[in-house]
Amino acid sequence: MTHPGCALIAALGLVACAPLAALAQPSQRPEPGRVEVGFGWTWTGRAAIGTGDAPEATSSGGALSLFRTSTEVAAARGVEGRVGFRLTSALALEASGGYAVASLRTEISGDYESSPPVTATESVRQFTVGGSLLWHLRHSRGRPAGVEPFLSAGGGYLRELHEGSVLVDTGRFYQVGGGVKVLVVSQQRAWLKGIGLRLDARARARTGGVVFDDRFRVSPSVSAAVYARF
Amino acid sequence: MRRGGGVAVITIAALMLAQAQPALAYLKFGVPVNGAQVTLRWAQPQVRYYISDKSRLPGVTVDQFQAAVGRAFDRWQAVPTAAITYQFSGFTSALPGQDDGLSTLGALDRPDLNRVLASTSFLIDTTTGELLESDVFFNAAFPWSVSPGGEAGTYDLESIAVHEIGHMSGLGHSALGETELREGGGRRVVAAGAVMFPIAFAAGSVEQRTLKADDIAGISDLYPDGGFGAALGSISGRVTRNGQPVFGAHVVAFDPAARSMVATFTLTAEGRFSMGGLSPGPHVLRIEPLDDADVESFFDVSRTVDVDFGVTFLDRLVVVPQGGDSGEVAVAVRPK
Fold first, then answer.
1. pTM of the model
2. CATH code assigned to A4-47+77-104+125-229
3. Is the Cβ pair B254, A71 closer than 8 Å?
4. Which parts of A45-146 are beta strand (E)?
């Protein structure tokens, strides 16, 4: 399995080796290139799924809890790739795909027969396919050349495989956020018009998948990527 | 008790007040046929039954009896993943327990059985394992009620009938329940997670009219409908203590999404277990010693059940695939 960090490190190495002469210079012109391809590392925070008692009925119609559970999807780490297309100088449309590994964790406590608390886990592999719209804040004050803040909003399809790939759950996600692109290498006339770094911070709302119901759960998500413009 | 002609009668002391009686029960009953264990079940999924009008429970007319028992049959028949149906075929002057080829439910006055509310017996063809007849008697020595909301100081006929019809269909006892010892001997039920728990709630309760997930899984496993196998899954595995197999460990699977429990036992000398009828998805596994009812309520008295271990949770979630099995799950229970 590819370690998600490896791709980023390799890409950063590529940037470091670029000729110094090609480093971006201050400019008010639109950033070069209409097509952008990026790849990087992503982290999505935990999402609480819920609590639930293991119920047994009492003679009066009440319930006795044999034990209690609290379940969450723990933070996921993975990789993400994007292909973007500039519709205007400010607006871009992106398609993305991601792979991450998380764990489903159930904390068990309050056993009726005083068994010690245990956390039961399983590994979950997440695959995502989605799309986003990016609005580049090209006229923001004090923006250094080659630095492009942006806002983003999008959503997509979520496919989660339980441990051993014995069961697949599907769902959806929606996300809003923003970030910044830093163009490190710029070559106006070359086929490869630039290479840069991109940081994203998003609020991601998910529904379906390995969670137990259709309610939305919001988690923070950040990513760091290297991109190339053509 | 064995009778001639390859036919045997097996009696289950099915629902007891406070002290379990010897029985031959697992989640499903097993019948030895030519050296092999055959699951006891009706060959035809439509079971015809009769109501005895020869004797009555105190305070309950024969018509009230038939109506309450009919509602109890309806509860099992309504399980969407099970294919069994029950048909009331009329009243009979025969009493339950007579080997007449009719499956009869009725009252018997048995003050000598002062801890048995009701009991189910089977007539089995021991050459094939086929279930030929099953009778249920309700003990007229106790006070009974058919009141919709139950009645203080009396036992709810419908609740007890639901349990007995589970036996009549081939289900054994479930150990999903908690009890405490009573001062005068026997046990008091604190809570139950299955209608098929062997000890009844106190008089006046109607709680056990409602089937639980464990009951539904059991009847569906015995009489699966067309979609049962494809829609649900199973968990199988092995329980050990210090590397040695554990026989008779009670294995509970909890589905945190549905908040429901299904249970079984380790039933082989190797400590293996298998339970079906589970919802696809992750499950919590809890393994406990059989300590909330007498061992004889579940196992043949000749078997030695291992209860010398503490309640243990598996530290991983077991994922039930849709239409398949989890693969072998190994659980090492902790010593007491």
1. 0.85
2. 2.40.160.20
3. no
4. 47-57, 63-73, 76-86, 91-109, 118-136
